[in-house]
Amino acid sequence: MERKGVRMVFKPKEFKYFLFNKKICPYCGGKLKRIVKKEYVGVDFTAMTTPLDMYEFRNFYCCNTCNRGYSLAELAEGRK
After folding, report:
1. Which of 3, 6, 17, 43 is a Cys-bridge partner for 76, taking CB atoms 3.0 to 4.6 Å apart?
2. Is 76 in contact with 43 (CB distance < 8 Å)?
3. pLDDT digits (tens, 9 = 90+) for 16-72
4. DSSP symbol at 21
């Protein structure tokens, strides 16, 4: 049986936006849809020294109306 580990890395502003803010497109005001991309990081060892295949999840958002894409960092900083 393969063991898999998951890593999600957030800065404080990104984490706050991810949990509490409404996901609205800054360009047109449309609703944003979350897209999660899974990337293989490599083998990592836990505290019990068991090897895990680590994956990192990155959150991106796409507007349904204007088809623009945004990263979580761009939305948290308020850039257009």
Report:
1. 17
2. no
3. 999 999 999 999 999 999 999 988 888 877 666 678 888 888 899 999 899 999 999
4. S
Q: 18 — alpha (psi -120 to 50), left (phi > 0) or beta?
A: alpha
**Residue 22 identity:** K
DSSP string, 29-58: -PBEEEEEEEEEEEEEE-TT--EEEEEEEE
The owner of tokens 């680590």 is 54
Tokens encoding 32: 């944003």
Residue with token string 């897209």: 35
pTM of the model: 0.75
Both ends of the chain: CA-CA distance in Å?
Answer: 45
Residue 54 tokens read as: 């680590």
| Tokens read off for 44 | 């990592």
